[in-house]
Q: What sequence folds into this?
């Protein structure tokens, strides 16, 4: 099963990305001041979150004096687009049945002729019903 | 004593469970034809019992078979078998096997640990997949308060319910645009029904409980259960919009949208059957008939007979097993 190979993001990782998308470049101290203190998260946690995002190639970094300054390497729309594509590919996988209940099995296909026949059958029932209600 | 008890129990559970699985594999294809003609609610219950039948009955038969041993260990039935005189709890028929060889048991236990380990790794990987899938859905979806669903901005057409303990409905923005108000009401009523009934969780539990079945029978049973669940949700959608034909038309419309907008799945694994679409539409077109009372009574009677049969055969089973 293909499943969200590309970036699996936790809540904090997404919050960091959202912050950087909205505010541009920041080092760990800046991100910690904006997100960490209000959430009661340590500087080290923010530092390792930034490191993980960098390893996932979602951030680029540059050393300025002694600290790294981070910047997003993908736009929000691009990342969302990638994730939606991955979810769609998961949906059409046969194995997805065990994870969800779809109105129609998304992995299945019906040929148009078969659907036409079924539609005719429904129309027949509908006209019969109208017939009965008028008579 | 406890080791003998355990060894006998494991051997007997696998033996009885395997025997019942074999009977299911032989009997299910002809039983299925009759089963598919039953109303979906009743069929779902029968399928749930059939899915966990080998494991539950295997355990039940083993427990009743071991009862004389347990009684013997409490000085209540020591006279029925000479071997019990030493106070050893066992199943008489399996006793020679239990004493066969330590090597036999070491190999068996090793195999069992291997299979269990493999199963646990597979279960863990599946759990991680679900978590990742859920996490991705949480990130890409937005709550749509008007329709009370989670909307995903996509040009594809899809709608589904996901989540085991707190299931939610996800729908693509494209599909919302393509459906009329009443059609959207049908789709949402159907999916909300899956969430209310915790269908995904039930399916997962039953797929674990049915592990003693042969894999082909198990796959077929799970697919039939899925069909029954879909038909139950179709029925609930009918109750919501009071128009059976509208539900049938919406089904066709969604299949057409899927054909148009979703990428092809791997042809090696994907069925070209439109998800039991014909069976679901035929059920919607036919007027629902109440389940005959005789079928309910007969099923209850059969179930009762089976249980009392197992209880009354406690002693013979003990020696037979």
A:
């Amino acid at each position: 099963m293909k499943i969200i190979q590309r970036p699996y993001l936790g809540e904090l990782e997404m919050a960091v990305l959202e912050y950087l998308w909205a505010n541009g470049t920041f080092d760990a101290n800046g991100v910690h001041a904006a997100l960490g203190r209000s959430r009661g998260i340590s500087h080290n946690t923010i530092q390792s979150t930034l490191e993980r995002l960098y390893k996932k190639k979602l951030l680029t970094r540059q050393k300025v004096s002694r600290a790294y300054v981070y910047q997003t390497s993908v736009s929000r729309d691009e990342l969302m687009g990638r994730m939606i594509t991955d979810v769609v590919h998961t949906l059409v996988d046969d194995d997805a049945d065990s994870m969800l209940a779809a109105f129609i099995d998304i992995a299945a296909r019906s040929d148009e002729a078969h659907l036409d026949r079924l539609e005719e059958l429904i129309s027949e029932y509908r006209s019969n019903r109208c017939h009965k209600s008028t008579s | 004593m406890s080791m003998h008890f355990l060894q006998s129990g494991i051997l007997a559970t696998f033996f009885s469970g395997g025997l019942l699985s074999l009977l299911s594999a032989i009997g299910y294809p002809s039983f299925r034809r009759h089963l598919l003609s039953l109303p979906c609610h009743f069929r779902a219950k029968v399928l749930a019992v059939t899915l966990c039948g080998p494991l539950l009955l295997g355990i039940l038969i083993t427990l009743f078979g071991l009862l004389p041993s347990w009684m013997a260990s409490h000085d209540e039935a020591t006279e029925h078998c000479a071997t019990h005189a030493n106070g050893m709890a066992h199943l008489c028929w399996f006793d020679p096997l239990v004493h066969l060889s330590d090597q036999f048991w070491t190999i068996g236990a090793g195999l069992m640990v291997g299979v269990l380990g493999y199963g646990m790794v597979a279960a863990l990987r599946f759990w991680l997949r679900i978590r990742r899938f859920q996490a991705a859905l949480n990130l890409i979806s937005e709550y749509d308060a008007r329709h009370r669903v989670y909307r995903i901005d996509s040009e594809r057409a899809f709608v589904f319910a996901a989540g085991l303990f707190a299931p939610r409905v996800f729908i693509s923005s494209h599909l919302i645009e393509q459906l009329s108000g009443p059609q959207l009401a049908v789709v949402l009523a159907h999916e909300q029904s899956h969430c209310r009934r915790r269908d995904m969780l039930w399916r997962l539990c039953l797929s674990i409980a049915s592990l003693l079945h042969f894999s082909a029978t198990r796959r077929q049973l799970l697919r039939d259960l899925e069909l029954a669940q879909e038909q139950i949700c179709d029925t609930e959608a009918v109750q919501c919009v009071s128009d059976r034909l509208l539900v049938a038309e919406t089904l066709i419309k969604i299949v057409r949208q899927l054909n148009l907008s979703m990428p092809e799945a791997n042809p090696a694994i994907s069925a070209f059957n439109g998800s039991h679409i014909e069976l679901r539409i035929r059920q919607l077109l036919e007027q629902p008939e109440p389940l005959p009372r005789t079928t309910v009574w007969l099923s209850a009677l059969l179930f009762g007979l089976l249980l009392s049969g197992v209880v009354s055969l406690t002693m013979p089973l003990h020696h037979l097993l």
User: Anything to note?
Assistant: The beta strands of chain B are 141-144, 149-152, 159-162, 168-172. Chain B has twelve helices and four strands.
